[in-house]
Design goal:
CATH topology of the largest domain: 434 Repressor (Amino-terminal Domain)
Oligomer: single chain
Order of helices and strands: HHHHHHHH
CATH class of the largest domain: Mainly Alpha
CATH superfamily of the largest domain: lambda repressor-like DNA-binding domains
Distance between the termini: 40 Å
Number of helices: 8
Strand content: under 5%
CATH architecture of the largest domain: Orthogonal Bundle
Number of strands: 0
Radius of gyration: 19 Å
Shape: elongated
Length: about 110
């Protein structure tokens, strides 16, 4: 996942592996192995260096496209509501149960 995202970002910036590796101060061979999925757990330091060159944060590298799409669909009111629920002490499991109950209620 991270490798594909790095490759996509690099290509969108029209940069070669060599350019990114040199600017980030990482080994080209290691960057290549991450992009190709041969290596799959790069260090935070590696992601920070490469992310800086590509103009993204580590968090942006870690969020998968599905998670990003969901976040883009949430308006400020939904985000505030979720934050309020979290602050009030509602656990994820309690919230999940509430959602499941509402789904069940609508289907009956």
């Amino acid at each position: 996942m991270i490798g594909q995202k790095l490759q996509e970002l690099r290509k969108n910036k029209r940069m070669s592996l060599s350019e990114v590796a040199e600017q980030a101060g990482v080994a080209k061979s290691y960057l290549s192995s991450i992009e190709r999925g041969i290596q799959s757990n790069p260090s935070i330091q590696f992601m920070e260096k490469v992310g800086k060159v590509l103009g993204v944060t580590v968090n942006e590298l870690l969020i998968n496209n599905e998670g990003l799409a969901i976040r883009e669909q949430l308006d400020d009111e939904w985000l505030k509501l979720l934050e309020d629920a979290r602050k009030s002490g509602i656990s994820k499991e309690e919230f999940r149960e509430f959602v499941e109950f509402n789904k069940w209620k609508k289907s009956h």
